[in-house]
Design goal:
CATH topology of the largest domain in chain A: Rossmann fold
Distance between the termini of chain A: 57 Å
Distance between the termini of chain B: 69 Å
CATH class of chain B: Mainly Alpha
Number of helices of chain B: 13
CATH class of the largest domain in chain A: Alpha Beta
Oligomer: heterodimer
Structural class of chain A: alpha/beta
Helix content of chain A: 40-55%
Number of domains of chain B: 1
CATH topology of chain B: ABC transporter involved in vitamin B12 uptake, BtuC
Order of helices and strands of chain A: HEHEHEHEEHEHEHEHEEHEEHEEH
Number of helices of chain A: 11
Number of strands of chain A: 14
Strand content of chain A: 15-25%
Largest sheet of chain A: 6 strands, parallel
CATH architecture of chain B: Orthogonal Bundle
Strand order of the largest sheet of chain B: 1-2
Radius of gyration of chain A: 22 Å
CATH architecture of the largest domain in chain A: 3-Layer(aba) Sandwich
Strand order of the largest sheet of chain A: 2-1-3-4-5-11
């Protein structure tokens, strides 16, 4: 009896392994995607999956895409990408910051496979990075938030203290402060990208301390649900989240990856793709999209918000335009000066006026 | 930093909500362990409750029916465990771990079509008169039904274990199953019932997560709550009231940490977030030390398979 069970379980395991190896792809050009969470998050991962589907559609049957969801930012990521490469992937999109070192490691082992890593800063001959200037979107929502808050307190649920997140906080704060000089920011770091229970707790805490507008830099729609229940405002993150809070949802910063993914796959197929490139696009290139504006926003504020959006898109306006001091009061940008990309990509300080410290 | 910005009444109210899944799951495990069985599958039963509760809640449009489904799902999964360890007499620790892994996997599979959907709401029930007491009213008397039920079950389980004949029989089975057997008590049946009850309670705890606390379904959303529940049982010395206090302290650390951050206190967030888990590891180590077990009122036959002698 025991032997039979052992045999059965062994063959079951084997079958599972055989099935997973069946990820092996058969079209001309094969593209793999790895996601940090489920595409059903209606946030960060959802938009990457929208981009993947756009690739599917753009090339018909010529390109085949595969994806793996819930890939932790650890050795698991290396394993998954290695598996994809072994299964014949020509290009792999790694769509979270923490995949940075795994991407570099796997890229070394597979020099012919092209790697695209989102929001990182390490490149190689076969690794390029891409990121969106989300902070441009934060200028728009920061302005709306500053105008809409009655308690003059804006809550911010942040994930990890990395430059991308710090940049967003600074940009939103500068815009909000300009719109409403009395505004104050409360920031909570929860050290995860995706944990709905924690995100909800953080939002509830901010609301209990008087915040009536919540900004988020975490992935799930839990905060929107909480905001709707509490009768405060929030903004969709990465995707339109109005379904979770029709009254709370003022607008969303939507990530538009589709054009970039289609373009890069096209380059890959044509042989014009280059490694070592660092793309950093914003509203102008359509990588950052401002969603529909809720009718609860007064017409004048809507108009101002659209003016900011259009100004940034056309390049006449920059989210970080001097004079701006750092938190400790030391000067950063002189009047009229705008921030350079290097400082933005490595931003590790708050601007003047934000209270609290960035966790180390 | 300005401590007056923290609304302590709301803080207490939200720590109660945050702790309720722990209280429910840990109470269930308390009964299981009192019957002499160590079920390490709490996490698995919670997540299966979370997903089943959410699915049924969404499909029927009623969160209460969802909560019942969560209980049934948790109980069903625990029956599997009961069969393996009571009938097949497999090792309880290994079977419990397997139950957790199995539960996490099957929940992810079942819940796949349900990510990113809104669940029906459970409304809060304010207790008349009491809810108008300043501060205390906000803290304790404006919650949903499940919170009140969790508090009532603490009381009921205490009464059951210390004042009722059936509770004493359950405890005797856990203390020494051979003696209980020789006195004519049905050890296997009693343990079956205890395990099923534990499963149902863990299921409700999970359902509370997906239907009330968040409320949405996410893969792996229990995020270790089941393990904390296990640790709580040990911390409490197998006593229901201490268990309740322990759960509120655990939940309190999390909520307090967020509050302190929001008012800008410079604290080491990483250490504070880690604290409940460190305590959990410590408790799980203590579980396995037999000397400690004798001192703290752990059931004598905890984790030992029962083999009918005569």
């Amino acid at each position: 009896m025991k032997r039979v069970i052992k045999f059965l379980s062994a063959s079951f395991l084997f079958a599972v392994m055989a099935l997973s190896a069946n990820l092996a792809i058969s079209a001309d050009y094969k593209v793999g995607f790895i996601y940090i969470g489920p595409p059903g998050d209606h946030g960060w991962n959802y938009q990457h999956d929208v981009g993947r589907k756009a690739v599917d559609e753009a090339f018909g049957g010529k390109v085949e895409t595969v994806f793996q969801e819930n890939v932790p930012e650890s050795a698991d990521a290396e394993r998954v990408m290695t598996q994809m490469a072994l299964a014949g992937a020509d290009m792999i999109f790694a769509t979270s910051f923490g995949y940075m070192d795994p991407v570099i490691n796997v890229a070394k082992k597979f020099p012919k496979v092209k790697f695209e890593h989102a929001t990182g800063y390490k490149t190689a001959d076969n690794v390029s990075t891409y990121s969106a200037r989300f902070y441009e979107g934060r200028s728009v929502v920061g302005h709306i938030g500053g105008k809409m808050t009655k308690s003059n307190t804006i809550g911010y649920v942040a994930s990890f203290p990395i430059p991308e997140v710090v940049r967003g906080i600074n940009s939103a704060y500068l815009a909000a402060k300009k719109a409403n000089p009395n505004v104050e920011f409360k920031v909570i770091w929860i050290f995860t990208w995706y944990d709905p229970a924690k995100e909800a707790d953080a939002a509830k805490t901010l609301i209990s301390q008087g915040a009536d507008v919540i900004l988020q830099h975490v992935d799930s729609s839990a905060i929107m649900t909480v905001a709707e229940e509490a009768g405060v405002y929030a903004f969709g993150q990465a995707s339109d989240m109005s379904a979770f809070g029709p009254n709370a949802h003022l607008t969303a910063i939507i990530n538009g990856w589709a054009p970039y993914y289609v373009e890069k796959v096209k380059q890959g197929m044509a042989g014009t793709w280059k490694g070592g490139e660092q793309t950093f696009d914003g509203i102008g290139a359509g990588m950052v999209i401002i969603g529909d504006l809720n009718d609860k926003i007064p017409a004048s504020v809507k108009k101002e918000a659209m003016a900011i959006r259009d100004g940034i898109a056309s390049g006449t306006l920059h989210s970080f335009t001097g004079p701006i001091n750092k938190q400790d009061g030391s000067p950063w940008l002189k009047a009229g000066e705008t921030a350079d990309v290097g400082t933005l990509l490595g931003m590790n300080f708050y601007v003047e006026g934000i209270e609290g410290d960035i966790p180390k | 930093m300005d401590l007056s910005e923290i609304n302590f009444a709301v803080l207490v109210a939200s720590l109660i909500v945050a702790s309720t899944p722990l209280v429910l799951a840990a109470l269930g495990e308390l009964i299981v362990e009192k019957s002499g069985v160590l079920n390490l599958g709490v996490e698995g039963m919670m997540i299966i409750g979370a997903v089943a509760g959410f699915i049924v809640g969404v499909e029927t449009g009623s969160a209460y029916i969802g909560m019942m489904a969560a209980a049934v799902a948790g109980a069903l999964l625990s029956l599997l465990f009961a069969f393996i360890i009571l009938i097949m007499q497999a090792n309880q620790v290994a079977s419990g771990l397997a139950l957790t892994i199995f539960g996490l996997g099957i929940a992810a599979l079942m819940g796949h079509p349900y990510t990113g959907i809104k669940s029906p709401q459970i409304s809060t029930i304010s207790i008349p008169i009491l809810n108008e007491i300043p501060i205390l009213g906000t803290m304790f008397f404006q919650h949903d039904l499940i919170v009140y039920l969790s508090l009532i079950s603490v009381l009921m389980i205490w009464y059951f274990l210390t004042r009722m004949r059936a509770g004493l029989i359950l405890r005797s089975v856990g203390e020494d199953h051979d003696v209980a057997h020789s006195l004519g008590y049905r050890v296997i049946t009693i343990r079956f019932l205890a395990i099923t009850f534990g499963g149902a309670m863990a299921g409700v705890g999970g359902g509370y997560l997906s239907l009330v606390r968040v409320p949405q379904w996410t893969e792996g959303m229990t995020a270790g709550a089941g393990w904390i529940a296990l640790a709580l049982v040990v911390f409490s010395g197998w006593r229901p009231f201490r268990l309740l206090i322990g759960a509120y302290i655990f939940g309190g650390i999390t909520i307090l940490q967020l509050n302190l951050q929001a008012i800008g206190v410079n604290i080491n967030i990483a250490v504070l977030s880690m604290a409940p888990y460190l305590a959990t590891i410590l408790a799980l180590v203590l579980i396995s030390m037999s000397r400690f077990r004798g001192n703290r009122g752990a059931p004598g036959c905890l984790g030992i398979s029962f083999v009918k002698t005569v």
